[in-house]
């Protein structure tokens, strides 16, 4: 009688997916892109990850923490390296371009990320420190430097939405008589909507940065002008 052969035991194969904060952020972003922010719940994310909710809570304590992970994951992709090699105006333009390209792919997350505090988001804080440091070194007042960053972000987020907007967004439909001259001009833009969106962003970004440089050179303040 021969001895029964036993099947070799698997070596260390996990019975459930291995979780990390990076994996959680990536799946959360996919979930929002596929189903919208309303479906980003801890239970829904656990199902997307193929784990129990309790396993997910071992890594993140709340939905708010998941959002911070997403914020950090996205902002880590933004290229800040130009601040190491270029004058601050050129570096600011390069940073803004990279920022916009990153968020063009994730416009559904902009309403969440744009108003999310950066506490416990190390990559986001490193990015802001790098940009602020370059502006501060250029002699820009601390408060002005922060406001410049905020202004650039406002342009970036709006321009990201514009790049993904429908080509016929300015089509007046049956109300052309209300704005006939604008409608004719906007029709030219619709022929190549993405190129037009890029042009609008580049034009506004250049004007913004050129204005900053001129004011600094002329020693002007950044106090808002009132009529």
Question: What labels describe this entry?
Answer:
mainly alpha; 227 residues
Strand content: under 5%
What do the pLDDT scores average to? Answer: 87
N- to C-terminal distance:
103 Å
| SS-based class | mainly alpha
The largest sheet is:
none
Apparent shape? flat
The SSE string, one letter per element, is: HHHHHHHHHH
The helix content, as a percent range, equals: 55-70%
Radius of gyration: 24 Å
Strand count:
0
Number of helices: 10
Which segments are poorly predicted (pLDDT under 50) over 5 or more consecutive residues?
1-10
Question: Topology, pairings included?
Answer:
Elements: H1 21-35, H2 42-49, H3 53-57, H4 63-76, H5 88-104, H6 110-113, H7 122-137, H8 142-163, H9 180-190, H10 193-218
Plain-language structure description:
The protein is mainly alpha-helical and 227 residues long. It contains ten helices and no strands. Helix 4 (63-76) packs across helix 7 and helix 8 packs antiparallel against helix 10.
């Amino acid at each position: 009688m021969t001895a029964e052969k036993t099947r070799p035991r698997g070596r260390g194969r996990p019975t459930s997916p291995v979780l990390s904060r990076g994996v959680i952020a990536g799946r959360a972003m996919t979930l929002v892109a596929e189903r919208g922010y309303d479906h980003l719940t801890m239970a829904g994310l656990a199902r997307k990850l193929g784990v129990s909710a309790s396993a997910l809570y071992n890594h993140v304590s709340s939905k708010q923490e998941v959002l911070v992970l997403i914020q950090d994951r996205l902002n880590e992709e933004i290229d800040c390296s130009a601040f190491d090699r270029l004058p601050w105006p050129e570096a600011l333009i390069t940073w803004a371009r990279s920022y916009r390209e990153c968020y063009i792919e994730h416009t559904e997350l902009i309403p969440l990320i744009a108003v999310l505090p950066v506490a416990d988001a190390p990559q986001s804080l490193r990015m802001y420190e790098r940009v602020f440091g370059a502006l501060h070194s250029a002699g820009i007042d601390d408060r002005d430097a922060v406001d410049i960053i905020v202004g650039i972000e406002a342009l970036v987020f709006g321009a990201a939405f514009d790049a993904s907007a429908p080509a016929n967004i300015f089509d007046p439909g049956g109300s052309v008589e209300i704005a006939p001259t604008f409608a004719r001009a906007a029709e030219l833009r619709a022929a190549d909507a993405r190129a037009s969106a890029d042009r609008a962003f580049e034009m506004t970004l250049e004007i913004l940065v050129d204005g900053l440089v001129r004011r600094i050179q002329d020693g002007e303040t950044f106090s808002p002008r009132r009529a």
